[in-house]
Design brief:
about 50% helix, alpha+beta, three-stranded mixed beta sheet, 10 helices, about 325 residues, five-stranded antiparallel beta sheet
């Protein structure tokens, strides 16, 4: 039997009638596969998550943790953990990404900033890794390996290595000095849903204990959507007030908060650009290639505002972007 046959058998054991429709849902960057199941006019989500490729324990454990904290997540209705098959509640198909042209966009973002503040206060769980120095380095290495070395085949010079080392140390320190909170790690427009007027969160399984500004960066400097500068400034002001009111920061100036936000963003976008390359080179997924250059633009723009990171900005702008652009042109022909 094929894996899909086993999946169908798993589904049939949980329904008295044969499902009328099982349709694939595309777009996920992980090894998981999703289907929408229609049975007796009811809708469910089926997740195929092979244990040989994915550790499903955090998904199961954190579902309980975050649900108990009052967050709306997909409910696990049935599961075969040995095979990695799950039947989940269907939260619909409307993501924040589908609502970004709405006139109420700013209000959506404010509500989601407040929700992220609540998420940050979720008590630690044993399955949440510490987003420590080693973890940060591991993520920065994704950029070095998958984008610099493997995607554009750039040979590191001594000057590059010195600049990279200095930049990584600055970024790491800026993240480690922040208050440690519960971090979703992918709190962006494609992982936030509006389900019957309520905000729901998906892809929560990689949650860690890490820097306060990480999820805020994911939301406001989304790799898939760029907020206008005026709106970003307004929402940062709101976030500073909200995080202060929620006692997530103590005696922190706005300038310090903005510094944390900016440098956390640079680290996240370096990692994200590397992951987009890895998805293409390792996993054969071409759908994220168009996101590489916009993500690099964030790095160039933000790093240029800090003298200690200007070399990183210049190197990204004058060395990395031209070679990525050339590579993308070849890959798309």
């Amino acid at each position: 039997m094929t894996r899909f046959d086993n999946l169908q058998q798993f589904i049939n054991t949980h329904f008295n009638t044969q499902p009328t429709l099982l349709s694939a849902i595309t777009g996920d960057a992980s090894f998981r596969r999703y289907y929408r199941l229609t049975c007796s006019n009811e809708h469910f989500i089926v997740m195929d998550s092979e244990p040989q490729k994915v550790n499903n324990a955090p998904y199961i454990s954190l579902n309980k943790v975050f649900t108990e904290q009052g967050f709306l997540l997909p409910k696990i209705i049935a599961s075969d953990e040995q095979q990695g098959f799950f039947i989940l509640s269907d939260l619909g198909s409307k993501h924040l990404a589908d609502m970004l042209d709405d006139e109420n966009r700013i209000e959506y973002y404010k509500a989601l900033i407040s929700l992220s503040a609540q998420w940050a206060k979720t008590p630690p769980s044993a399955v949440m890794q510490a987003y420590n120095k080693d973890f940060i380095k591991l993520e920065l290495d994704i950029f070095s390996q998958w984008l610099v070395n493997d995607f554009i085949d750039e040979s590191p010079t001594a000057a590059y290595q010195a600049m990279w080392q200095t930049s990584c140390e600055l970024l790491t320190q800026a993240m480690l000095v922040q208050p440690t909170v519960t971090v979703h790690r992918d709190y962006h427009s494609r992982n936030i849903m509006n389900s019957n007027g309520l905000w729901a969160i998906i892809d929560y399984q990689d949650a860690v204990r890490g820097p306060l500004c990480y999820d805020l960066v994911s939301l406001l400097r989304d790799c898939y959507f760029k907020l206008p500068a005026k709106e970003l400034t307004s929402l940062l002001d709101f976030a500073y007030s909200e995080f202060t009111a929620q006692n997530l920061m103590v005696n922190t100036s706005f300038d310090e908060f903005k510094y944390w936000f900016d440098l956390t963003g640079i680290q996240r976008h370096l990692k994200a650009a590397g992951i987009f390359c890895r998805l293409y080179l390792r996993d054969g997924k071409t759908g994220y290639l168009d996101n590489i250059l916009p993500t690099l633009d964030y790095i160039i723009e933000v790093a240029a505002n800090y003298p200690e990171l200007k070399a990183l900005s210049d190197w990204t702008k004058h060395t990395i972007v031209p070679k990525v652009t050339e590579k993308l042109a070849k890959e798309c022909t």
